[in-house]
Fold each of these.
Amino acid sequence: MTMSKRDTYTPDSLLAVAVEVFNERGYDGTSMEHLSRAAGISKSSIYHHVRGKEELLNRAVGRALDGLFGILEQPEALSGRAVQRLEYVTRRTAVVLMEELPYVTLLLRVRGNTTTERWAMERRREFDQRVSELVKAAAAEGDLRSDVEARLATRLLFGMINSVVEWYRPDAKGGSEREQVADAVVRLAFDGLRA
Amino acid sequence: MTMSKRDTYTPDSLLAVAVEVFNERGYDGTSMEHLSRAAGISKSSIYHHVRGKEELLNRAVGRALDGLFGILEQPEALSGRAVQRLEYVTRRTAVVLMEELPYVTLLLRVRGNTTTERWAMERRREFDQRVSELVKAAAAEGDLRSDVEARLATRLLFGMINSVVEWYRPDAKGGSEREQVADAVVRLAFDGLRA
């Protein structure tokens, strides 16, 4: 029996607690008991909200994926030269990653064998694939260097963007700090370190 | 009692098995029992080689760190313009990462509370710090852009380099393939994607 507080959770606030535990212990290493302890409510109270931990994972990575795929539907990602669309997608991906930090962190760490984990990995690959097509289109329009293969360039680009989850922690500056980091990502990715 | 084969392990071959298990299960999640099963020899045979799993971790991350710090001692890293030294260090870091893939992967994933884990994290920060100083020196010499702060630039640079562990798997091409990836890292990091 765990110490229980009154269950005042909303779907979002319970999800926030669960994602924190998943990121801390790994999804596989997290039991309903761990979730119950972290939330301070009983397991049966959690089952009142969700069918189980896989539903929580589904909602958490779904939130990250909605943020990322949403970028590709915005007008700036849909028309104009490919290099400009790619710049827009790069900047916005970095911003979404910082805005939805714990959810994207979880998405990037998911590896595994449940249906939800496989689905998340599949959707993530699909997003990478969409960006890789933009890289190819921009190279075909002559705006990107042609001496680095598009797939490799996309991997390194995501490597740089995604690494932000390793060290970014929101501070009081909030939005302006995120824009600053996203600016740096775009500058380095497109024009490099060299003066 | 596990099924045991004759113990023909050398320190290096036992280390290779252990690192694979650490990378698969996480260091914390690995017991001597897991190591014994993966190696196919008894726990007491393993204790004949090492005092315990922390010694294996120490040797594994030590190998990665020796490779990385070795770069900083090479002549090309010690003299010349800072931007050229930084380019050299970037290229060699990418190559060492691919040559010592499982060991560097383990080093990058270490987070924890044992003395060895803390030591590894400390040494890794020290390496980053040394590279960050090169970035600052190159900016001071006017060779790097000044509109991205050195510490942020270093983080994004390592983000790109280190992401190679996520997808790189050695193939038959070996050295030439590694040089190709390292070339791409240097091109994108210094000159960016843009044509």
Amino acid sequence: MSRPLILVTNDDGYSSKGIEILNNVASNFGDTIIVAPNSEKSGKAHGITLYDPIGLKKIDNQNQLIYSVDGTPVDCVKIAINSLLDKKPKLILSGINHGLNVGRSILYSGTVSAASESIMIGIPSIAFSLQKSEEMDFTNVDIILEKLIKNALDEDFPNDVVWNVNIPKTVNEKINGIKLTKQGKSNFNEIYHKRKDPRNNTYFWVDGAIESIEEDLDVDEVAIRNGYVSITPLSFELTSQKYLENNQSKGFFDFEK
Amino acid sequence: MSRPLILVTNDDGYSSKGIEILNNVASNFGDTIIVAPNSEKSGKAHGITLYDPIGLKKIDNQNQLIYSVDGTPVDCVKIAINSLLDKKPKLILSGINHGLNVGRSILYSGTVSAASESIMIGIPSIAFSLQKSEEMDFTNVDIILEKLIKNALDEDFPNDVVWNVNIPKTVNEKINGIKLTKQGKSNFNEIYHKRKDPRNNTYFWVDGAIESIEEDLDVDEVAIRNGYVSITPLSFELTSQKYLENNQSKGFFDFEK
């Protein structure tokens, strides 16, 4: 039996530690190709590059096919599928992000967006993130990844939801298990530092931290805090069915000019 | 009674025709402030600027308070709320985008993302887009905007869904009405043009067009094609409830290391 093709990407750049570990584990299950940004692209969300040329470089590496893209994580998936791969990959893996992607800040995440782009073209996908610590410690992360990637290669793995996987930093010592969770409402609480440049122009630096407002153990961020690996199934069909049902019959929408 | 504060933004830049018309109509209902990108930021999605300083300029204009931000549409909303406004606006309006934001390509849209950022902080929001034509013709668009903005200032207007409003280019002659719609599955069908620079480095330009695969009149893109203004209520709570219900009891998630 031929080995499945697995596309590996991220938003921290092709040379990050996280993508190296993800690719090492994925290589146990299939033929991998890395197509990832040339540098840190955190916060790029589902952005695409429309008005600039997108540079592509093949990285010199004897053991692994790696392409570096001067663009966003979503650009990487699109260019891989449209121009680099001979066949459709069986699975697209994104990460391992250096830092959590939980709560509302998921919307800003390039790691998750590479995965949502994948399911939009019908390819199953997982986004992996490891909780930040002073020195990112990836000990034991491979054990979690092995279990999840093996499962994702099963025929019944969904291609219409993204598995958003977040791993607590305690994984280097122990974890309490894996939890299927909901996206929480916790948000990134920004502080904008206002400064002046030498020519007296105003500019800002953004800073801040996740504001924890959740308590239920089935919420992504709370599961992590309690030492669980969190898996949130995300759908990108955005229509609010509830709003449609409650408002469909309102006269307002029958307006004729 | 004091007039409500309305924040106006977009992704085409503060000097675009679309935002001027949107702001003109909004001014009939409240005190407006424009905080918008300094240039075209289409395709920036929900991106935020994490690793660069974000420049801010007050634009010299006697009749209207305008700030220009060297950042994404979401940066504009965040900086306005965090640093520029004395009080929370009653409503945040985004657009009018020069071109539709329908189907799956909503995910790439800076116009829609400024609106989704707004509901994440609990402020009602509408994203407006006008179908592209060779010369963007905004005739009669103000009539539609007036009706929708007036409605959005009602106390019962939702602050947990975005109204994604798309207006057909036929509005300059006639429209057939307003339809409450669903987000379609039509996607942007990209073509990547591969080129070489003078130093033999590979780069790509992206090009393409919306691929229409929908037929039901209650789908955003089909409503537009049939001469209706399309209003899709969008929610950004991404958890797939369906997946949770179907998989919650699976042993897989009880894994103990």
